[in-house]
Amino acid sequence: MALPVGIDFEFRKLIMDVHIGSDKIKYCYQCNRCTDNCPVASVANPFYENVFDPRLIVLGTLLGYKDVVMMLAGTKSAIIPWGCTVCDTCDTVCPQAIEVTEIIALAKNVTTGAGLAPDNIVAQAKTVFESGKAIPSQPAIERRREQLGLPGVVTPDVNEVQTLLKAVGADKKL
Amino acid sequence: MTEYKMFEGCTIGNRIPFIEAASRKVFDKIGVQTSQAPFACCPDPTGVKSFDNTTWLALGARNLCLAEAEGKDIISLCNGCANTLRGVQHQLKHDSNKKEAINKELAKIGKEYKGSIDVKHFVDVLLSKLNAIKGGITKQMSDLKVACHPGCHYMRPVEWMDSDDPLRPKNLKEIVAASGANVVDYEELGLCCGNAVAGPFPEHGDAILKQKLDSIKKAGANCIVVNCPACFQRLDGEQRNLSKKFESEYNIPVLYVTELLALAMGVNSEEIGLKNHRTRRNTAIENL
Lengths: 174, 288
Ligand code: SF4
Ligand code: SF4
Known about the structure:
Number of strands of chain B: 8
Number of domains of chain A: 2
Structural class of chain A: mainly alpha
CATH architecture of the largest domain in chain B: 3-Layer(aba) Sandwich
Number of helices of chain A: 11
Number of helices of chain B: 16
Number of domains of chain B: 2
Largest sheet of chain B: 4 strands, parallel
Oligomer: heterodimer
Largest interface: A-B, 68 and 69 residues
Largest sheet of chain A: none
Radius of gyration of chain A: 19 Å
Bound molecules: iron/sulfur cluster
Distance between the termini of chain B: 31 Å
């Protein structure tokens, strides 16, 4: 892996603010417990080119090395940060109670803004924007619900959902 | 009796509704009352939250507003929805800037988030009704050897999912034991099903799921019980693929915990659409 050179202070500030009203991220002492317990890190290493390492992400964050946190910055669906399966094991075992998963989520958000999120993530967000649901209702399933004696799913007001999502600028990232 | 707002979620409501059918049957039998509301997607704590945290907060808060308007707590049938709705509450409760910002946007659709209701995962509600559950069991369940898989988002992160031990969860085991079925322990109890990574990186997702299933096989389970639709789809839907891919045999039937309870309470498998599962039923389940 090529070593990063640029320090991005804006990115650093963004990530430092993940812990609401606390600077505990500074106290990461690189013990590696997060990586030792990460299910993706454990299966990713044999794939070699797809190394995934939450400890490295926290270090890169602390130092403001945006390129480490987005190891393949400029690449769509880079394994860092998108390999994180959001299992929250790292933050559970971290002796310093650092919310590693939240840090990675924010890193993912940054790639989304740059149009580099994986297709399935963008597709889901699009469906939610268009129908208010991640899985829109379909006639076959509606029939099945009826056969099972279930009431119809009450659908949300899609105009209302879209007004809200536009207000927060979600539509511009789709 | 408390009435909850039912949050079945997109996956159960619009893809695998047979799980909702079993859940409603069990709720009726143990006295859990629910009503519907025009909820949108929760939205997904691994999808939309990774896409954009603010989008996730706004849509989650809108859902919470609907329940607040009726002054009723939410009951969620899904780990993802429960984790999102509780996680949104957590961020808005502890970060007054975010709350103010989100309320400014919610005002555009005539809503305001207050933080006045609670969101319950249905497993926690079941756990509070163990006596009613035990009282409703009519079947002999002792042929079942169950490996429990509560799934990550039921018990982590502890900051907002705090009703169980995050690494050695026991709540689902207690409910399964209350049905009379045997609980078998296995090493990888706390391991993820690999759902979120399987989207962009299927190789990694499959390797994690294999690790989980191998551990369950080794423990000699003849049934897997889950309480999350995403985990259900992974464990029930992917065993055939994994068998081919790794030239190994994976064919352990998967039940939602409410399906297990419905069967144990004498509900007919037809009534709850059990035939829609991908993994084949074995005799232990067939004989119920
Ligand atoms: S477990 Fe915590 S303290 Fe240790 S390396 Fe990971 S983030 Fe740092
Ligand atoms: S939340 Fe992500 S980084 Fe943390 S242990 Fe799970 S997969 Fe690894």
